[in-house]
Amino acid sequence: MASLEDIRKTRLEKLSLLRKSGMDPYPTSSTPSHTLEEANKKFSLLAKKKGGVTLVGRILSLRPHGALIFFNFNDGTGTFQVLFKKDETEQFDLFLDVADIGDIVEVKGTLFLTKRKENTIQVKKWRMLAKSLRPLPEKWHGLQDIEERFRRRYLDLLLSGEVKERFHVRSRIITELRAFLDKAGFIEVETPILQHLAGGASALPFKTHHNALDIDLFLRIAPELFLKKLLIGGFKKVYEIGRNFRNEGIDVTHNPEFTMLEYYEAYSDARQQMSFAEKFLKNIVKKIAGKSELVFDEDKIDFSKNFTSITFFDLLKRYAHIERPESITREELSMQAERQGVKVEKGDSIEKIMDSIYKKTCRPKLLQPTIITEYPVNYLPLAKKIAGRPTLVDAFQIVIGGLEIVKAFSELNDPIDQRERFGVQEANLKAGDAEAQRGDEEFLEAMEYGIPPAGGVGIGIDRLVMLLTNQKNIREVILFPTLRPR
């Protein structure tokens, strides 16, 4: 079996032969008359077309038979069979000498139906559009190494129709999300990715440096604070779909860069947004799945019913067997975490330990759509307290199939309370919690001009795509996930 280097050397020789023949192996442009999808759909009509048609595509198989050459090619919209005849195709011998599976070619000819009833183009003229110098992986085996599939996603897409369709579905999901929000009166905005202070979430940011200004900047961990500034500026309903960046570990539900949808509505609250988010999710499932039920990891998930609701503390009682989560001490909670195999770092706050326990013992149990409410006040430092219950915030999450899909709350609009909450976060940071939120003076100044009551919602698009395409690994739904270099 020839080595990759030998194959490449042979193909370079064919490249040279193409150039010597006077044919440009990488021409600037091509003018196909139809896509292959159109050629298949309108075959009967196009077969009668005087002058024939011009089609393009990547060669997927080559079957020379003496004075005949058959091959199939694909242009990204469909596949079509091609026939070369020695006495009727210009530069037949050149094609025979230089063509390989993987080459991208343009052919001009007439359509006809073979005896086996296969749509085919009989070629009069052809030219090379891109000479391939490396062989495609064997069609039936493809890329066996999972990490190589992610690293060389272009080959993964070429070899697997299922993978390619998954990303078509992802695009449709984002389109439907936009359409739903646009119809509801929201406007789409863009906020900075490079920020002086990474705020809006609890996470460790990536740091960079801007040479001209000679300042350090951070890649955003969330757009929240800027979107809330827009509410201060008089916008009533805003949303943003974009990348966030968090310097965190990689696992089946986390990638260091990921796509989030965040939307905010002035003069609203968590209760109203809870109803809207449930309607939103039911709509997207119906649009994409075509029904109110889907299968995720062999579990049937039913969206036709009202979502189940449970408080955060009741969840810890039920699944983590913590009897008094509302009054437990950090020492007691650390012991509980250790018994359940949850690692506790020295600087972890009590809320962070609870979150770690929840993620290991509670979240995986929540398969049907579940709304979790009433979180400890320092769990979400940007959320408003529940009236008359100052130890809890008016917030909710929606978990489906064990995945956190939605996080939302009534937005804190009291600048004095917000400053105090930032103070707690700064203390946690000094105690060793690297993911604690920073006090943001610019945001506090903006709040002092008056921010209306509001409800804000964040939806993890990658996880939503996982749910709707039945994928258990987030890297399967991100075209180019973050990987260690070879």
Describe the overall structure:
This protein is an alpha+beta fold and 486 residues long. The protein is 34% helix and 27% strand. The chain is built from 15 helices and 19 strands. It has helices at 4-21, 36-41, 43-46, 92-98, 146-151, 153-159, 161-183, 224-232, 270-289, 312-319, 330-339, 350-362, 415-430, 441-447, 461-469, and strands at 53-65, 68-74, 79-85, 104-113, 119-130, 187-188, 194-195, 207-210, 215-219, 237-245, 257-266, 293-296, 299-302, 308-311, 370-376, 385-386, 389-400, 403-410, 454-460. Strands 6, 10, 11, 14, 15, 16, 17, 18 and 19 form a nine-stranded mixed beta sheet that branches. A hairpin with a 5-residue loop joins strand 4 (104-113) and strand 5 (119-130). The model has no long low-confidence stretch (mean pLDDT 95).
Show the helix and strand layout.
Elements: H1 4-21, H2 36-41, H3 43-46, E1 53-65, E2 68-74, E3 79-85, H4 92-98, E4 104-113, E5 119-130, H5 146-151, H6 153-159, H7 161-183, E6 187-188, E7 194-195, E8 207-210, E9 215-219, H8 224-232, E10 237-245, E11 257-266, H9 270-289, E12 293-296, E13 299-302, E14 308-311, H10 312-319, H11 330-339, H12 350-362, E15 370-376, E16 385-386, E17 389-400, E18 403-410, H13 415-430, H14 441-447, E19 454-460, H15 461-469
Parallel strand pairs: 3-5, 6-10, 14-15
Antiparallel strand pairs: 1-2, 1-4, 2-3, 4-5, 7-9, 8-9, 10-11, 11-19, 12-13, 15-17, 16-17, 17-18, 18-19
Helix pairs in contact: 6-7, 7-9, 7-15, 10-12, 11-12
